[in-house]
Amino acid sequence: MLLNRRSGGWPTSIFSTPQNKPFYAGTYIPPHSREQMLGFTELIKIIAEKIAQKDADLFKNADEIEHFLKPEERPTQATKLTENVAATFVRQAGDNYEPTYGGFSANTKFPHTSTLNTLLNIALIRDDKKALKMVEHTLTMMQRGGMYDLVEGGFCRYSVDEMWLVPHFEKMTYDNGLLCQLYTRAGTHLNNDSFLRTAKEIADFMLDKMSENDLFYSASDADTNGEEGEYFVYGVQEVQSALLKEGFNEKEASTILETLEITTAGNFEGHSIVRLKDDERPEWFERVRTLLKEIRSARTYPFIDKKVQVSWNAMMIKALYLLAPHNSRYLESAERSLAALLRSMHIDGHLYHSTLINRPPKVDAFLEDYAYIGTTLITAYEQTFDEAYLIQAQQFANTALEKFYDNGRWYFSRGEFVTEADTGDSSYPGAVGIIVDLLLTLGTLVEERYRRFAYKTIEYYSMKMGKTPIYFPYFFDQVLRHLKEDRVVKASETMLKDNALTLARIDYPYTMRQRDSSVTDEFLICGINSCFATTKEPNMIEIEIDNSF
pTM, whole model, 2 decimals? Predict the structure, then answer.
């Protein structure tokens, strides 16, 4: 973005001097020149020649870019943040909200998961009806099909239209991990079975199509045989024939085709993307869904990028843990996947960033890897109460502080490229918000000093946060959490596990669970510094938490 004044895509190529100073970047450079685009082969010959000649302009440009990548200036002042900033966040989200189909733009639509997650939390803690409406409506419209794959589950990267109908058919692990988390939380707190169903379908798709040896691949492609969406779309004749063969009569088949928006004209380049007009799935839906899967099974599945990335795997594993109170099989999958990730990517005390499946990793971890795997370990602890997870999370936090922290400022990398960490959210939440989440949690469950690092980080970025919180949804959510303060439910491991679903349904979003062997037959409810209530009744816990404010 710095070099080209616009965002890029994949693959991104960055060219550097022999001193590792970047000077040129491009997106999707073709192998050879075509039309008006310079090809990779020709480009590197030009660059090699200029490097050999020690071209003064090129090296000057590299020095200037390096300066912008690691600015030395610090914020001149901090500002005091209050809970009232939540109203600013909701107003700014509302300014971008598209009320007909939901989402936060008029045409091309991305899921904006962290914005929705923060709006959900604001709705829960402030009873904000406007925030709640944006969340419920957007999640409802997104899951009706199109960007969401009703046949096999899983979300595509984005929709090119306002209805969430026509997607870019690529499926990313980070989108599906984060959306699985969000639909699980929304389904749990809003008592919405359709949201929970979507969360489970996402998880099942990722476990079935996008994993190997308990690790998750990074992405699947949009194209098959050079045609975008070929694997995913349907023609009327093939579906009608399958329905009649299955035993549906012609009238029933016609109704099914109309309900699923499978038409002769189609809704995508002469073919049809499966979509429902409302949330109510007809009684025949699962039977027909099986037929649609069978039609796809004869096709070539899109190319899968079998890269394993720590942060993205951690997002998906956390989603499985959050689903565990609703079905224990997700806990078993989460446990296996977390063990596989640590075994593969945390070697001899050293955390790595990514590798190809079944290959030894070579790229060192960045801040986001420490942050995301740390928060996933916390979620693992809250489902299993295995303190080894808590200790491991603390170790990752300590290493992150040592490697990337500088008096309130965080760096994404301090290796060959020194870059400041993202506070804002783009495709997924920036690393600063996630590491603050980890530090606040450790400050509550383990040792208070971690909260001081979190507070210093919030203070450092407070001016930006106060003016435009909408740019930093996840980080801003942690600011709200800091202002409201955590609540902790302590009990024996047995009581916590036996009441896992009740505890998951507590609406105060900053509630944690902690095993306490000294508490035998009741629940102890605590703040950061002291405990304030006990109860033997699980259903009373939420009332006691509400009464504490």
Answer: 0.92
